[in-house]
Each structure stands twice: as C-alpha cells, then as structure tokens.
Amino acid sequence: MSDPLRPVSRPRLYEQVVEQLRAYADAAGLKAGDRLPSERDLAERLRVSRASLKQAIVVLEVQGLVEIRHGGGTYLRADSLHPEPVARLVERRRRLPDVLDAREAMETKLAELAAQRRTEADLAEIDAALTAMRAEIDDGQPGEEGDRRFHAAVTAAAHSELLADFMARIADQIAETRHESLQQPGRPPQSLAQHTKIADAIRAQDARTAVEAMRVHLETVRRVRLLSWNPEEP
Q1: What is the pLDDT of the chain when averaged over all its residues?
Q2: Any alpha helices (H) in 37-186, and if so which ranges?
C-alpha cells in the first residue's frame, strides 16, 4: 500500500513573486498599457534578486499578460495580472510540440485536398472566415474565432471524413496552439495574411502552393514564447 502522505512541494520563489505582482497590479488599479515599476525598484521592494524577478516577469510574458519592451520597461497587455498556475503552464509546454507536429501532418494534407476538391460553397465559407478574422483584428481582438473558422473551413473543403474526425478529436489541443500563437505581439495580422495566401492557392486549385503556404503558416504558429521558456532555469 502506497503512503498517502507525500512531501509537500514548496513554490519556487519566482512563483511567489508572480503572485506578489498580481496583487500589486490589482491594488494599484493597473490596466492594459500601464507600466510596471522598474525591475530594480520591484526587486528592492520585494527583497528578491533581479534574477527571480526576471523569471516572474517572463512567466507573465509567456502567458501574454505583459509585454517586455527592450530598454522601455514592462507593460500590461491585459487589465489585470491573473496568470494560470505554473504547473498547468509547464504541462501545456510539454504537450504543445506534439500537437503542432500533428497539425502540420494533417493540415498540410487538408490544404492539398481542399485545393483539389473545393466547391464554390467551400470558398464562400473560407472567405467568410477571413472576413470575420479581419473584423476581429480591426476591433483590437486577436482573431481566435476567425482563425478557428478558417481552419475548419479548409478542413471541410478537403471533403475527407476521416481527417475531419481526427481534427475534431484534437480540437481542444489545437485551440491551445491557436491561443498561444495569436497572443504573440504582431501575430494576428501576420496570421491573417498567411491565411489569405492559403485561401488564394485553394481558390486557384494550386495544391502544391496550398501545401507550402499552410506549412509556412504552421511554422509561424510554432514560434511561440512558451516553447522558449525554461521553467527550471536558475
């Protein structure tokens, strides 16, 4: 029988600093666009090393809550600093590469088939998804719903029941990669432009170009801050 009493894990110091920064932002009423105090000031007030403070700020950056402007300080990207637990962040970082590999394998094939099999109705839905994503971005949003609609429209245009079923099975994991990608600074309009190239190739029934355009897009999706973060970095 295993011992039900297990050692209690102690939060890393930078995790405690993250919580302190969250409480500070709430108490100070900070909103999106506001700047945090300098690293030196925060380290002195929290009585922690600059290294621990930097780790905490990186955790917030990885989650898209702050933007680090080199030489210009750290600014809030949301109206509060309410990060998810670091353990959950670590778990998502662990599974993200596998999901991205699966997306590349399936969605490049879906783009090829869509270029070969699309109907006028399929093209109309692809165009509607692009319009929806553009409207979201123009409204200051990341465009996640338009992104979801676009990839769903490409999947439908491929007319492959089995591949569509595979995509549906990992829809939640794909949504995580979408969120991670579209919270990167400058990424939403870049993704919209890449979607447009994919759509143009599908419309032209150019399967080779559709595959390459989808591959380039998914390589961009893979470049997220989370994957360059090392939670064990001293």
Answers
A1: 92
A2: 39-46, 50-62, 86-117, 120-138, 144-158, 161-169, 171-182
